[in-house]
């Protein structure tokens, strides 16, 4: 079942890179007591994600935070090393890069994508959500290819 507006973010553990190396980060650590804009992509370094989706958030990070967002986070079903490298390649210093390597959190959200036709296996659908203190207030899932309802511009209109 797909998460919906009004639902609590499910418990889970993601990975992020720190100066000390990979670190587990629980969803409570990410969402509790904060306003979070989380966007998810099918894969780091893929064309739509690198050319359109991520750059919109990088360019608008200051405006998004000025609108009251505590954390902007990007998640993909990739390992923490790939997410770290992609974040650096995209100059995403203001974005928390989250790896869901086994797609467990993605599955808990009910937002898996079967990318096996492209040799990708299980991935995340392209989506963006806003959560306040761990409760989803907005959820935009892309209905097909492209970046529209989950773009930074669209999500900024909801803040």
From TrEMBL:
Record-listed E.C. numbers: 1.11.1.27
Stored InterPro entries: PRX5-like, Redoxin, Thioredoxin-like_sf, Thioredoxin_domain
Thioredoxin domain mapped to chain residues: 3-159
Any one Gene Ontology molecular-function term assigned to this protein's record: thioredoxin peroxidase activity
Keywords tagged on the record: Antioxidant, Oxidoreductase, Peroxidase, Redox-active center
Positions of the catalytic residues: 49
Domain of life, source organism: Bacteria
Primary enzyme class: oxidoreductase
Coiled coil segments of this chain: none
Catalytic activity: a hydroperoxide + 2 glutathione = an alcohol + glutathione disulfide + H2O
GO biological process: cell redox homeostasis; cellular response to oxidative stress; hydrogen peroxide catabolic process
GO cellular component: cytoplasm
Family stated for the protein in its record: Belongs to the peroxiredoxin family. Prx5 subfamily.
Function: Thiol-specific peroxidase that catalyzes the reduction of hydrogen peroxide and organic hydroperoxides to water and alcohols, respectively. Plays a role in cell protection against oxidative stress by detoxifying peroxides.
Name of the molecule in the record: Glutathione-dependent peroxiredoxin
